[in-house]
Amino acid sequence: MPLSMYNTLTNQKDVFQPREPGIVKMYVCGLTVYDHSHIGHARSLIVFDLMRRYLEYSGFKVTYVQNITDIDDRIINRANENGEPTSDLAKRFTKVMFSDMDSLGIRRADAYPKATENIAQMVEFIQKIMANGYAYESNGNVYFDVQKVKNYGVLSNRKLKDMIAGARVDIDQNKRFGMDFALWKTAKPGEPTWESPWGSGRPGWHIECSTMAVGLLGEQFDIHGGGNDLVFPHHENEILQSESATGKSPWVNYWLHVGLLNVSGEKMSKSLGNFLTIKQLLRLTTPEVFRLLVLQTHYRSPLEFSQDNLEQTERSLEKLTNCINGLKAQLRKLTTRPVDEEEQMQIEGLVMGYTDKFRQAMDDDFNTREALAAMFEFTREVNRITGIKELTPTSISAILEAFEGTGAVLGLFQDSTAEASGGGDAKLEAGLIEFLIEMRNDARENKDWPTSDRIRDRLTELGITLEDGKTGTSWKKG
After folding, report:
1. CB atoms inside a 10 Å sphere around CB 468
2. Are residues 280 and 318 in the same domain?
3. Dihedral of CA 41/45/46/48: which sign?
4. Buried b (16+ CB within 10 A) or exposed e, 422-431
5. Lowest CB count within 10 Å: 252, 301, 402, 451, which one?
């Protein structure tokens, strides 16, 4: 089954065919850095992190670009409220953003272009659009002339006449037409400005992404992603700008959009008091629990976040980690044993069946819900087999390798903080815990119960819970 993905541009699942064989160029709209990142941002970036991981797992070489909007109305307004330069505000929250993404185990993009570092390129891009007859200058502003194009609404399935009839458009005497949008805004008091052929000013929001995407990925590329809330007008306007500047269509072959996140049945907002930042989230749960919560829902569907869902997800993750830790514990105590050919064939068939189901699910528009169903089915069968007999080291290693490979795609079974920092501290911690477990097991075998109890009690004090099973001792935090 070939990889297919739901393309907002065509309103259907399309078989994925990159423009260059084996190479994927992917652009994702990043954050506007004026405040702390929230769990809605986290959901979207986890999803695109997953897509990138699966594309690489499938053998593609991926170039992943995620922009940083470090100048716009919200940044200007917040900086003015704080009485600080916009650049200082943006730098501070850019650092916060990277810290939040690292804490969630989201891999760094290949490039993070900033709007303020690409102003000259934006001016040139606007000049191309004007030269091609799709934009005009008015009192130091430059607007895109939407009436000059035939495909306005191609992404959002809207018609211009319907948008005009239903729109509440601010009256702007500088525009020729109410739906025209700004490519360049003339300078206003209290705002940072840059020089341009049309006078001092700053770029419009939409032109930023068009310029940076084309500059880094070329005039046409494979995938453009973002949240559902960006389909219109942001992504719609990006298409018009980019194709009007380059004369090439389609600008992007596959448009992928992530559903919104609701908190306890309502849209997340500060006014409702259900707004949750990533830092607040990580006081409630672990990065892997939240990631699993995200992946249990298909990325295009709304995601429901609640305390109940969080607790259910914690229990689900525990089932997976208990199985894996049990296998590791069993492997630690095993010595080399002859290969059991019958067992080996059974385990190879089990692993192959699981990875095939996992791939089939992921090839079907990154269906993590079905991929996880396959993983839990695999876990139950492994638990059934290990409950009956002790497997050989070869068999256990094959099972663990399957968990490791598919878990890496999902971003599970790894310490997210350790992944971002190189993994040293987490590996050291895990190694010390496992060493203490081995000491405890030796004490138990020698019927040295005081030592055994002292090790368990000390680990409990440190937040480490031990679970003794038929196949050995597993551990978890909390």
Report:
1. 14
2. no
3. positive
4. eeeebeeebe
5. 301
Rounded CA-CA distance 187/54 in Å is 45
Q: Which amino acid is at 118?
A: N
- Pairwise CA distance, residues 314 & 322, whole Å: 12
Q: Is the pLDDT of residue 273 over 70?
A: no
Q: What is the DSSP string of 352-384?
A: HHHHHHHHHHHHBTS-HHHHHHHHHHHHHHHHH
CATH of the domain at 19: 3.40.50.620
| pTM flag (> 0.70) | yes
Residues 280 and 319 in one domain: no
Domain identity same for 79 and 210:
yes
Q: Are residues 362 and 231 in the same domain?
A: no
Residue 300 lies in a domain: no
Distance of CA 385 to the CA centre of its chain: 35
Q: Are residues 214 and 139 both part of a single domain?
A: yes
State the chain's mean pLDDT as an integer: 90
Domain containing 146 equals 4-284
* Distance set, CA 340 to CA 223, 330, 386, 396 (Å): 47, 17, 15, 12
Asked whether residue 83 is domain-assigned, the answer is yes
Of 97-101, 109-113, 332-336, 451-455, the one with minimum mean pLDDT is: 332-336
Q: What is the tally of structural domains in the chain?
A: 2
C-alpha to C-alpha distance for 295 and 298, rounded to whole angstroms: 7
